Amino acid sequence: MADKQYKLTFCDGSGCLKNHAREFRQLFEEELRRHQIQQNVQIHLSGCLGMCTKGPILIVNPGYIMYGNLRPEDAAEIVQEHLVNGRPVSRLIIQEDHLYNRFFRIFGDSEFFGRQMRIALRNCGVIDPEKIDDYLAMRGYEALAKVLTEMTPQQVIEEVKKSGLRGRGGAGFPTGLKWEYTAKQSDPEKYVICNADEGDPGAFMDRSAIEGDPHTVLEGMIIGGYAIGSRQGIIYIRAEYPLAVQRLKKAIEDARREGFLGERILGTDFSFDIRICLGAGAFVCGEETALIHSIEGFRGMPRPRPPYPSVSGLFGKPTLINNVETWANIPVIIIDGADWFSRIGTATSKGTKVFALAGKVRNTGLVEVPMGTTLRDIIFGIGGGIPNGKKFKAVQTGGPSGGCLPEKYLDTQIDYESLAKAGSIMGSGGMIVIDEDSCMVRMARFFVEFTQDESCGKCTPCREGTKRMLEILTRITRGQGKPGDIEKLERLGTMIQKASLCGLGQSAPNPVLSTIRNFREEYEEHIHQKKCRARECTALLSFVVQDNCVGCGACKRVCPVNAVSGNRKEKHSINPNLCIKCGQCYDACKFNAIAKV
Amino acid sequence: MTQNQTEKLQAIREAMLAARNDAHPESHLIGILHKVQDVFGYLPREMMDEVAQTLEIPTAHIWGVATFYHYFNLEPIGRHVVSVCMGTACYVKGAASVLETLKKELGVEVGKTTSDGLFTLQEARCLGACGIAPVMMIDEKIYGQLDSKKTVDIINQYRKAAAEEKSAVGAETRRGKP
Amino acid sequence: MSRLITITINDKPYQVEPNQTIMQAADKLGFHIPRLCYHPKLSIEGACRVCIVEVEGMKNYVASCAFPVSDGMKIRTNTQALRTARRDIIELILDNHPQDCHTCERDGNCELQRLAASMGIRARHFEGERKRYEKDLSSEAVIRDPEKCILCGRCVRMCSEIQQVHNLTQAHRGFHTVVMPAYNMPMGESVCTACGQCINVCPTAAFLEKNYTQELFEKLNDPNLVKVVQFAPSVRAAIGEAFGLEPGLNMEGQLIASLRKLGFDYVFDTQFSADLTIMEEASEFLERLQSGGVLPMITSCSSAWMKCLEQFYPDLIPNVSTCKSPMSMQGAITKTYFAKKKKIDPRKILSVAVMCCTAKKYEAARPELMFDGMRGVDIVVTTREAAWMIKSAGIDLVNIQPEEPDHPLGISSGAGAIFGATGGVMEAAIRTAYELYTGETLVDIEVEAVRGLKGIKEGSITMDGKEIRVAVAHGLGNACRLLERVRQDPSRYHFIEIMGCPGGCVGGGGQPYAQINSIPLDDENLRKRAQALYDLDKAKTIRRSHDNPDVQKLYKEFLQSPLSPVSHQYLHTHYKAKTPVGIIPRNERTLSGDSK
Prior knowledge:
The complex is a heterotrimer.
Chain A: E1 6-11, H1 14-18, H2 21-35, E2 41-46, E3 58-61, E4 65-67, H3 74-84, H4 101-107, H5 111-114, H6 132-137, H7 142-150, H8 153-163, H9 175-184, E5 191-196, H10 205-212, H11 214-228, E6 232-237, H12 242-257, E7 273-278, H13 288-295, E8 319-323, H14 324-336, H15 338-342, E9 352-359, E10 365-370, H16 375-382, E11 392-397, E12 403-406, H17 416-421, E13 430-435, H18 440-454, H19 460-477, H20 485-499, H21 503-507, H22 510-518, H23 520-529, E14 543-545, H24 554-558, E15 564-565, E16 573-574, H25 584-588, E17 594-596
Parallel strand pairs in A: 1-2, 5-6, 5-8, 6-7, 9-13
Antiparallel strand pairs in A: 1-3, 3-4, 9-10, 11-12, 11-13, 14-17, 15-16
Chain B: H1 3-20, H2 29-40, H3 45-55, H4 59-68, E1 80-85, H5 88-92, H6 95-106, E2 119-124, E3 136-138, E4 141-143, H7 148-174
Parallel strand pairs in B: 1-2
Antiparallel strand pairs in B: 1-3, 3-4
Helix pairs in contact in B: 1-2, 2-3
Chain C: E1 5-9, E2 12-16, H1 22-29, E3 52-55, E4 62-63, E5 74-76, H2 80-94, H3 111-119, E6 142-144, H4 154-162, E7 168-171, E8 178-181, H5 197-201, E9 207-209, H6 213-220, E10 226-231, H7 233-238, H8 252-262, E11 266-267, H9 270-291, E12 297-298, H10 303-312, H11 326-342, E13 349-355, H12 359-364, E14 379-382, H13 383-392, H14 414-417, H15 424-438, E15 456-463, E16 466-474, H16 476-488, E17 495-499, H17 523-539, H18 549-559, H19 565-571
Parallel strand pairs in C: 1-5, 10-11, 10-13, 12-17, 13-14, 16-17
Antiparallel strand pairs in C: 1-2, 3-4, 3-5, 6-9, 7-8, 15-16
Helix pairs in contact in C: 2-3, 9-11, 9-15
């Protein structure tokens, strides 16, 4: 790629597609062939760049020249004048300078980043997170200045409402509404909290956001404080994120020094400060009332709502809690405007979402895309598809609170409602790709084991119910499943969903119920035929020596229980009665002569 | 206690007195417990009692908080964590007797730490090294094909290393180095 | 009177007050929603999820104990889905509970058992691992059995919110959550005051009093012992409940007859020594008042209260009356005066007390109360234990012919009877102190100001032109709040009565469990029990302690006069600071909440 003279990025978002972006690109490619320069050019397709009224969009690098409002006849002119003659076509250049563009400018030419739209993560990888000057150079704290000098608190709230931003922690509650409820409370003592207790296994969106760009979180919180009338912000962050904590501490120090935090910020009457509170290893503290109790110095156990934190939260005072990613969006909404923001995404879910793409997929990492992007685009487009020639089986969204979606849901356009309708949730953005070699029952068991361990123990359905679900799932994976187990799981799961006190319990059965719904055959095979089609549950496997065994004896040597017999140069065999299914022979065989069946 | 620890302990005491004058002293509890664990590696009872007295929070409440959060250690952790694999393969190959040997040699039960603070004995689920069963893991290192003698030899290696380090530090101190 | 709102329950509209929970509204309308962790005197947890209901518009079930009503709300309390969910929840609790109902102390009287029966559980689906914990038998008074605990949290809330002792906490997390004192130390070594309120609110047998019934039965069969028993005022007012009778019946005569049938040689009445206590205490108060002694003087008959004071308010020990409690005075007089009179070797006397109180078990074992190498009271059994023994021996307490107590420690005045109610000791003391001080008869001997269930009550009485300010507190939390006032201003009161249990001794930790349609420590029940004692007082001809002829005789024949050296030897004691782990400084800020 390095030797290509030009890198072209065509916006392939739905807005541009409506404006005949594909036809434009086809014509463009014809022109390239006509001039015989197609081999000098690298072409990328990107996700929606958020400039749908000016589409189709084409970005030419080097130089980050952005063309817009293109008509089919413009293709020939651009190829001839810009690519061949080196003279960009001025009349077609548009200078949009949204905040997220800067990331795109630097990384937009890679397959992985080019299709993303980095709003919340706009500065990650672009600035030195420990230098406030870097943040300032990226228009940092400009939103705060605008808010404090040009907007009333009510106007700020209106802007956030207009943007359509919804809570990125998982619940998806309209952020502007939450701000409005909290602002309405007459108590002069109010609190602003950032929930950085990211506990989903496999999720690292918040960690990266804070490690890469701590100031955006601070700026968002200060603006939030102004909007609702609070003087004190608290960031509740996991103790397991020492680098993020360190960077936050530095950012707060620097912000105080520069006058963005503390008394009379930027010379106005508004004062606000931020304090860090460490978590201590309790996933349940991601739930907002549990988090509040943890800050108050209690066991992190949730309580019934109402009253909601916006009315009575920390120390009984009106409290605004938002997730890291939600806060990170606020400065962008203020600078680039709610109108612009609300044009990104779907009718009900505006803006972008950061997903932690992991599992059996070529490109793992953080993916920030507009809402409405399909699962297929993320997994096969940005993610690069399933490696090693394996088949896609399911994608698990939302971490231990979410569900497993099989192939038929790949074209779901991701937003809060569509994922819920498909039987999963958005959650905080975990997205784990599963291929044919993963057992869905084991997957469900893995998640329930996690939630069982993290259950606070307060309410009966979660404390006792998830334990019993785990016991049933464990038996099934050990080949001890009984008829009726699936029905028991369904009955227990539905009850736990509906009767638990907090979101942890209410969503703990999701992985189980969604895998039963979508992969019931696997459960039935485990129970009735004692078979695991993914060949992961060792208790249900037999290790059998195949005919291509050359008799080298490697397996015999490593077997801890002397279950392998056979003479040199003769086909060996494994005694199933002695075999403890440790799999050492399978690993030791260099001829792939041992099969798991 | 080292000089560093003494200074940190003093800082904790000052932080507690400051917290007492705050409108919500309990909200500093978890932060203070973190600092205590930072100094001692776990939460000693005497320290929890002191926190109760200074912050005027019932001891039972502090105990409830300390036991709720998995981050906090309620028992001291030794310098080296010795995990004996109790997976099936190791079990079949004699892991139980390795465990007994360790219990006798170290003089502790599972989950406890030796009085010299050097070793904590734990059981582990399958470590995935079944070919060289029975297996124990000390910190990140795996030792396999153990018998009683080998186990004790390995432990003694660690003891020797710790003693050598101690006498090296002692020698440096005598030479006046910090 | 706020505007009423309309809610629909099970398709029928009702007009209810706003600003209440669904459960409160439903209770008033006669819908009883099943519940476990909810208790009206404690903060709301919403933990058990048994009280769940369906509210239209809410995706999931809500806890009716916590969810507020609003205009137009549509609620369903008894759909098939709800019934199934509640049943499954109870079943889950049972699956982590010992299966030993038939050998459990609360068989027949257990909230969990009742709920399970009402759910109609006939099959068990979710059996698996069960928790295993050791019992804690270290305390003299209260034993813990964590395997029976269903983690409703009532005990923790009672101990912290109402009693302000903060001995208990939930520890660890998830499936491994257990209720315990700090560091899982034995109860006997903790700050537990043995008040037994945890037993009162516990829905199962996770907390019980230490049981002496087997030992007592053995001793009752020992022909070499002279078996003497006394019983507290509050016992007669509540024991009927253990036999299915309604609260507030005075079963004094029947109880005496039953105790005799059980095998006791002498049945005395603690109300006698209550009169004796008043003689000593009123005299002690007057002495302090007249010679500049330490004031305010604080009563000391509540043993949970004494342990609480020794632990948390040792600076106020000089204020406490040196009088023993009526039970301990009775024990001392039994083994000295009575033994001498009947020419019995006191070492052969088995002195038993039937008490409404669990802390009395702890008190009877206090070394400071020993005299001549003996304990005043050898065995203390609670109202519950006595009821069980009577039933076990086949005695029909309900229908048996009432009998009178024995002399010379059996007659009592009305003042002695009201000792069981909060304010009763103060009222009794005023009746005697006034007349001793002024030499005149106190005409209005019913002192309304100190009666009733208000947490802290204040009153004053003028004796010969001198204003005496008194205060009464019940429940350890209120007691501590009252003492903070004393610390701030020692001249605010002259005389203070403190009872460790809500409602006074009638609400003691050893009283019968709440019956099937009632809740523990229901205010109505406490009032009824107290009223039984006030009625008993009214019905007596002798209503003042100093008019008790047997008490007068006791002084003439043995004690000589109140506060004499003999009195001091046998009827008075001393206290000292106690420091188990868990004592923290007490001040206004560490006492949460308001007086209840």
